[in-house]
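My current task is to audit a protein record that another person submitted. I have pasted the whole thing underneath without changing anything:
***
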Amino acid sequence: MPTFSTLRIDTDAAHPRIARLLLNRPERLNAINDDTPRELRAAVEWANANPEVHVIVVEGAGKGFCGGYDLAHFGEGQIDHPCQQESAPWDPMVDYAYMKRNTDDFMALWRSPKPTIAKVHGAAVAGGSDIALCCDLLVMADDARIGYMPTRVWGCPTTAMWTYRLGPMRAKQLMFTGDVIDGRTAAAWGLANASVPADELETATLTLAERIAGVPSSHLAMHKLVVNQVLLTMGLEQTQTMATVFDGITRHNPEGVWFRRYAQAEGFKAAVQWRDSGRPIPEGDDARARIAELEAQLAQARAHAQRPSD
């Protein structure tokens, strides 16, 4: 079996036609780092190259499915990165190239000729919801949560799957509010195929996977291609291009820079608490003024840290 640093994949011992792809950074709530998208794509490719596998179940280790990008690193840390450029003026195309590659890697789940099922417990939020919604089917625990809170500030879902999975009205509601919904609501809205009590999630997911696994793989591939072609004809690829460009803008406009500076100065938990509370997000000139104050605060803290101790 292939070896990865952020996930594992293997065939189910009792059900060899089912591959189990486990996001495996439980100490970070399976948060996405630079390696995760590449490894996810490689794991899907491994499953597709295995003729015995007919269906892929994607799940998370520990307390939840995936908490999104590891923003304690990307948001709070003092880094210069293709998707968070600090040392030079923002280059949209560098940002776009990095995030589009991640999007394409997540979409390996959607392109996979073999059906993919997201088995969601705990949270599938922000970038974690991108992974879940790139899967063909979604089975959730009743108390699981899914949503994209960074639409409030510092993010735009690059896979753009919400509208295609929910329709425009519900998608707008979640994008405008940044709210999360539980498994029961996701099923009622048609986002999830099923929502079950947490202790029944494994059984419900395997029951669905086994039913699919009995179909010849060529038939599964053809049916998936037909459905996917509808989304492509509707403009999925063009929508993802726009969303990925907009994602970069949200991280480098005044509101996005304020959020990052606030996370650096006060800690990412404090920044997230402000973002998700419903408290107005600083914008425009107010955001610029707060950025200046926070940068002065950060400079003072760095100068103090560099002083020799008495």
Q: What stands out?
A: Strands lie at 7-11, 18-23, 55-60, 116-120, 123-125, 137-141, 145-147, 180-182, 194-196. The two ends are 55 Å apart (CA to CA). DSSP finds 14 helices and nine strands in the chain.
